[in-house]
Write a structure and sequence with these properties.
By secondary structure, this protein is α+β, with helices and mostly antiparallel strands. The protein contains 15 helices and eleven strands.
Amino acid sequence: MGRCDRQVKAYGAMAGGLKLRPRLVPEPLWWVSLANLADMDPRVLELWLDEGESPPDVQALWRSLERSTECEICGSRAQELDEVWEYGELDGGAVARLVGFRSLCSKCHLATHLGLAQIRRRFGEAFFWIQAVNGLSRTEAARLVDLAVEVWRCLSSIPRSRWSVELPALGESEVRPRLERLMTSMVRSERFRPARGWVWTPENPKVSAPNVQSALSEYPGPLSIVNEAREAGLKVLRQELSHAVSLLRRPSKLDGTPTVVGKWIVFMSTREALKLFRRVAEAIGSGSVPALRAKLSWKREDSKAVMVYTPNFLDPRGVAEVARWLASLGVAGRMVYKPDVFTLAGIYRSHPSLRPHIYEFEPAKVNVEGGALEAWL
């Protein structure tokens, strides 16, 4: 008997005859879908492949799939192609099986994927649609969702190393074995995790961000920060730095929880960005550098952004140490550093009075010793 049998049976008993059933993706499988792979730059997919192995053409496969103009649940106009996955336990592990595809309207698609609805802050809308399509009372719909969450919670507790992916919906397609290997590798990877248009590294096991109140209590004031930053080789944007600190003190202006985390932003050709990201991920995973985590854009484009996070933008020496380490790995152009509070406050390049970063670093103007990763570990 599997660990999730009780939850799966209880959910199936209630949801079996319903037209619209929420399907929550177990956490180890988040963002690993044909739709997301089709959206990714094929060169990014190489992160999960053996050296020299080329990725399958997922975009061509995705475009070739048949689509209907009518929602297969409610009959309205279809706008989404939904992947129908089944999750179960197998031989002490777990398997995700793609068993089909169906065309759905945007409402039925959102209600099927309640986790996505939660992210988009549209859970109430999705919940109402589950009630309406299935003819359920609010109490019955709440029970259905609770049971779906129980199944999700149990399946999510199975370690990612024990998950595998099967794609029977692709039949005898020649790309099926390669795709199954690729998607299983993505699910099991401890080094590279896809999410929301980015590939992320896990957090550095030896680095953590201080809480905001602790960081502010040790904040020495703008003049000291500016002097420390300049001594470390950083250019400081004083107005922007002061505004970042003020945002920490006025969190009501932020769309999210305030934080002192920030990131260096580097733009490089896709091939160079992938090379850098692999080395950064290796070092962060070993816990031997002061960076907190990193991410790489998965978009199809000639150049990509690599963002490397530090735990505290009020620690200019620590921020500069990560910049110097990146320079030692071959980053030669200007780097800019953006605190996460600017993102939470909606401060981007189009802002009328503020630049969207607080520090700059130019390796060519600073003596950076070494050049090999080992020199900075």
